[in-house]
Write a structure and sequence with these properties.
By secondary structure, this protein is an alpha/beta fold. It has helices at about 1-10, 55-80, 120-130, 140-150, 160-170, 180, 195-210, 215-220, 235-240, 260-265, 320-335, 340-355, 395-420, 440-450, 460-475, 480-490, 500-530, and strands at about 15-20, 25-30, 35-40, 45-50, 50-55, 85-90, 100, 160, 175, 185-190, 195, 220-225, 255, 275-280, 280-285, 300-305, 310-315, 365, 385, 425-430, 450-455, 495-500. A 7-stranded mixed sheet has the order 16-17-15-14-20-21-22, with helices on both faces. β2 and β3 form a beta hairpin. α10 (about 260-265) crosses α15 (about 460-475), α11 packs across α12 (about 340-355) and α13 packs across α14 (about 440-450).
Length: about 525
């Protein structure tokens, strides 16, 4: 206790703040890099005028609430105020569109990763650059705004992401970590900066539409992990902590996206390592040894926090539908006069999945809340599909619901592992899907056909990864790589690894066959239903 108190008073801690899809969380780690306090705030995106968005006032209300909860946790646990830290960093949902004018005014509502409204732009850019440009990337949103004739485009002087915006307001610096920047525009792994050839081609394309933006000038400056990215200003300190207890001057590492913090949180930054981050959305990241042989619309090319090339399979919906069903079942037991806690409900539901038929008894669940480019969905419609002879039981329903959270990821991963022949030495899971021990880990191993490891910190996920990147800035020795530093952090870690169970693997393949057969029903629902 006394050592932690001294570390807090002496600023020998690191702070990570991450703005996730449904939760904003702040995590404080001690000198041994384990979490010592945390705080969070629940929030939700809005569908406004057909656009998935978060309002910036909600961003600050949530960030301040999460930090206040963290400070209260520190005070309650250790009896000392949280006035400073050794280093800090902010991260958020990758991608999206946040344009600002010369006066720092927001020019359009924040268009998040969840939107699938940039198809024409993404297709044209992918063809032009011979580089997969997903719909959620910032450059796709910018070019779609050009195609739409939106009048704010000519007034853009700064285009950034959610993490980049937050960092800018805290430090005054318009920068991004290279991992986050790789979700705005293609990155050259040799220079760890925007690809010059792609910049030139895109600039010419914009000019052909009569747009006179200097693309390079409006994009954030790119920094690698371990680089000082600015210091907390007095104004930034007040934004984060209106009580005035937090002191300015704290060094900040480059702001990153949730993909990069997931890589740090699972020590998956070296070639042939990978991780799966499974929460509201799910994405798998695999660090490559060599370039891919072909352009695949299902695979993104992004970067580690140090600029190494990474293949990414991103799926828009993972646990949202599962969460909705658990809430419904919770209402049922409450109506029966036997209420259960949220944790008890999830434990029960997950455990039931393990007792179901390996193929989910012929039940097929589509969990798509929004469009899903990997399987060609423009609009999502969550559906449960079954044949008349399917075995509709609670265990089969639970298994089908968990399988649905993994199905689209499996389709993308097959392209990477089977078609491209990419090799993996280890795959680590983190995020909400793994909070119930064993179940999600076991079923994912069977689905992907590779061993899946989960660390004890799996539930902390991105915020802890962001705190690690901040600690790396403060602690690294001269010339020490992020890979080497993380190996030291994880040397004392503990976790578990589960190989694929042959029965689970065969069962999931049978489920996936039914999934493909029923897919036209889901596609028709998204097209026909209002």
């Amino acid at each position: 206790m006394q050592q932690i108190q001294q570390a807090i008073r002496g600023g020998q801690t690191a702070l990570g703040i991450e703005l996730g899809s449904t939760r904003i969380k702040a995590v404080l780690i001690g000198p041994d890099h384990t979490p010592i306090a945390s705080g969070d705030h629940t929030w939700e995106n809005r569908l406004e005028n057909g656009v998935w968005t978060y309002r910036l006032q909600d961003v600050w209300a949530g960030v301040q609430a999460a930090f206040a909860a963290l400070a209260a946790d520190v005070q309650a646990r250790y009896g000392v105020p949280l006035a400073t830290v050794g280093a800090m960093g902010v991260s958020g949902m990758m991608h999206g569109y946040l344009p600002f004018d010369a006066g720092g005014r927001q020019l359009a509502p924040f268009r998040t990763w969840r939107n699938t409204i940039t198809g024409p732009a993404a297709d044209r850019l992918t063809e032009l650059l011979q580089y997969n440009i997903p719909q959620r990337w910032s450059i796709a949103h910018l070019y779609q705004a050009v195609l739409n004739g939106e009048d704010h485009v000519d007034r853009i002087v700064f285009l950034t992401t959610l993490a980049g915006y937050l960092h800018w307001q805290l430090t005054g610096e318009k920068v991004l970590g290279v991992g986050e920047a790789s979700g705005m525009f293609p990155i050259d792994p040799e220079t760890c900066d925007y690809d010059v050839g792609c910049l030139q081609k895109t600039q010419a394309l914009l000019q052909a539409h009569g747009v006179n933006l200097d693309l390079r000038a409006i994009l954030p400056r790119v920094l690698s992990a371990g680089t000082l990215a600015g210091n907390l200003t007095p104004e930034g300190a007040r934004l984060l902590d209106p009580t005035g207890a937090l002191q300015p001057g704290i060094p900040l590492c480059p702001p990153e996206g949730d993909a990069s913090t997931g890589m740090a949180a699972t020590n998956s930054v070296a070639p042939r390592t990978g991780n799966v981050s499974a929460g509201t959305s799910v994405f798998a990241m695999v660090v490559l040894e060599r370039p891919l042989r072909a352009v695949h619309p299902e695979l993104d090319l992004v970067a580690t926090p140090t600029g190494r090339p990474v293949a990414m399979v991103h799926v828009n919906t993972c646990t949202s539908d599962l969460d909705a069903w658990v809430r419904l079942l919770g209402q049922m037991v409450e109506a029966a006069g036997k209420p259960m806690t949220k944790n008890e409900l999830y434990q029960l539901f997950y455990r039931q999945a393990l007792t179901g038929d390996a193929d989910a008894g012929g039940l097929v669940s589509f969990n798509c809340y929004s469009g899903e480019p990997v399987i060609g969905l423009e609009v999502g419609r969550p559906l449960l599909v079954r044949r008349p002879d399917a075995k509709l039981t609670l265990p089969n329903f639970a298994r089908a619901t968990l399988y649905a959270a993994m199905a689209t990821l499996k389709i993308g991963m097959d392209i990477l592992l089977r078609d491209e022949g990419v090799r993996l030495d280890r795959l680590l899971g983190h995020g909400g899907l793994f909070k119930v021990p064993v179940v999600g880990q076991r079923l994912l191993a069977g689905a992907l056909g590779v061993p899946v490891s989960v660390m004890q910190t799996a539930g902390e996920g991105g915020p802890w990864g962001m705190a690690l990147l901040a600690a790396y800035l403060a602690e690294k020795r001269q010339g020490q790589t992020l890979e080497s530093w993380l190996d030291g952090v994880f040397a004392a870690g503990s976790g578990s690894t589960l190989p694929p169970d042959p029965a689970d693997a065969a069962g999931f393949e049978a489920f996936l066959t039914d999934y493909h057969r029923a897919l036209p029903v889901e596609q028709a629902a998204g097209t026909v239903l209002p």
